[in-house]
Amino acid sequence: MNKLLAALTGAGLLFLGSVNAMADEAAISDEAKQTLSKAEADVKEAQSKGALWTTAKDALKGAKAAAAKGDNATVIKEAKIASEHAQLGIQQLSYPQTK
Fold first, then answer.
1. The whole model's pTM is what?
2. Angle between the 72-92 and 30-48 helix axes, to the nearest 10 degrees?
3. 31: closest CA among 63, 67, 76?
4. pLDDT in tens, 40-94
5. Cβ–Cβ < 8 Å for 75, 35
6. Looking at residue 98, what DSSP letter applies?
7. Residue 40 CA: distances (Å) to CA of 15, 29, 53
8. Which has the closest alpha carbon to 38: 85, 71, 4?
């Protein structure tokens, strides 16, 4: 009986944790979601080309943390920085090499 109660309690807590995570993600605006999605794609592309700047990675991490808190303004701000820095890293690949 105690094992069954413990299992049901654990399952209930996992379910509530999932619901809370979905609620937090759903709490951000469509604009914030789109900006974050673009940043994720830009960072992924830069990383695949070996051109990812640490500032882009850090900004994306900040945008995701803000999304978890439902902070639309910070999501948009950090995601735009992540996209811009990822794109600059890719552009940098075309610069002439120095000796």
1. 0.73
2. 20
3. 76
4. 999 999 999 999 999 999 999 999 999 999 999 999 999 999 999 999 999 999 9
5. yes
6. -
7. 27, 16, 13
8. 85
Give dist(CA 67, CA 65) in Å, integer.
5
Angle between helices 2-26 and 54-69 (to 10 degrees): 110
Between vectors from CA 81 to CA 88 and to CA 65, what angle results, nearest 5°? 135
Contact 56, 86 (CB under 8 A): yes
Instruction: Give residue-wise pLDDT tens across range 8-34.
Output: 555 555 555 544 545 555 599 999 999
CA 37 to chain CA centroid, nearest Å: 8
Surface-to-core class of residue 55, CB atoms within 10 Å of its CB (0-12 exposed, 13-18 middle, 19+ buried): middle
- Write down how long the chain is: 99
